[in-house]
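dude i think i finally got it to work??
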Amino acid sequence: MEVEKVMELFDSNLILFDVEAEDKEQLLKMLTAKLINKGYVKQSFTNAVIEREKVFPTGLPTAGVKVALPHTKPEHVLKACILVANLKKPIIFKEMGNGIKDIKAEMVFLLAVADPNKQIVVLKKMMEIFSKEEALKKLKHSTNSEDLLNILRKELG
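look at this
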């Protein structure tokens, strides 16, 4: 899957700035509701993401800006997308892999991928971006959807 295929998953209407929530569950309910309202995912997506996060946490201790990458099975997805939430204040997610450490996520990339084979490719591409401290800082400091999408396009290139 080349860069354009991953870029197609981003929609400027699904890039949110100064997102506020009390905790991870409230945040995930708010973000998934946006995807449900826009017809990207089924009603079942919300609980599926929250339950998966409990078993397989998605917080990443990335350099520069901590991120979380919540997602769930493709059966809950109607149309593939990636919602980006730039948080006003960090929200605690458990660390991916061990589930023990707290990660104060500053950005959340909520994946809704309809094809299980593509999910691996998309995760891999996102991890490439997450390994670049300067790219993450640019994403965090972007102030509008267009800037953020341009940074992603450049980094995915």
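The chain has a mean pLDDT of 94.
im so relieved honestly
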